[in-house]
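We append the chain.
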Amino acid sequence: MAEQARPDFGRTADDYARHRAGFPPELVTRLAERGVAVDGRDVVDLGTGTGTLARLFALAGGRVTGVDPAAPLLQQAEALDREAGVNVTHRVATAEDTGLAGGGYDVVSAGQCWHWFDAPRAAAEVRRLLRPGGRVVIAHFDWLPLPGNAVAATEELITEFNPDWAYGGGTGLYPRWLTDLAVAGFGGIETFSFDLDVPYTPEAWTGRIRASAGVGASLAEAEVDRFTDALESVLRTRFPGDVLEILHRTWAVTAVRR
């Protein structure tokens, strides 16, 4: 089987903006408890997408720059920022080469995206961007497949339509990122996690899955339409009701630029 092309999230920008749940506000509180404050700080959010993490930090008082290579996602981020009443500076660039001035930031974050980066180059860029003593945050907000739940059924369907998809069966924990940061010379590495249910209507959950790497960002349009019909059928027959409670895990690793 040929190697799968890198997902193009620009193709999913509309669903991504409408249906992808953002990081919970509790993440900001938990980070502050661990010495990673964003209020009044200069923050860069790498791989910002539609800006869910950048917007959360801006709402908490941060001066935030969001970086992403997909211009359509940044256009959605700008519209969502206006709705939220916050100002985030956006820049089309990669995490490995942001083009931003070095040594000028207190916090550099990466939400739900570190696995798409060239880790050694991205970690080096994070070090370059941070002031001495600045903090890096790599965070995830993942759905959790458990036997018999809607997430597990959804992942089975994604694999049926896209056998190359390799991100099913996740636990929401990413120990390798700790190694990436340690090898890059960061210190004070810590992790934390917490779980919560996120309510989705069946329509919104279907849109959320279309916005994922395994579906809308990879499959041809006709296949995406077929997948949508199939998932709607699975939800109707196996998980009837107006609301799905989708279990998620928030996980983060923080470290200090020495």
Observations:
- Strands lie at 42-46, 63-68, 88-92, 105-111, 130-143, 187-200, 244-256.
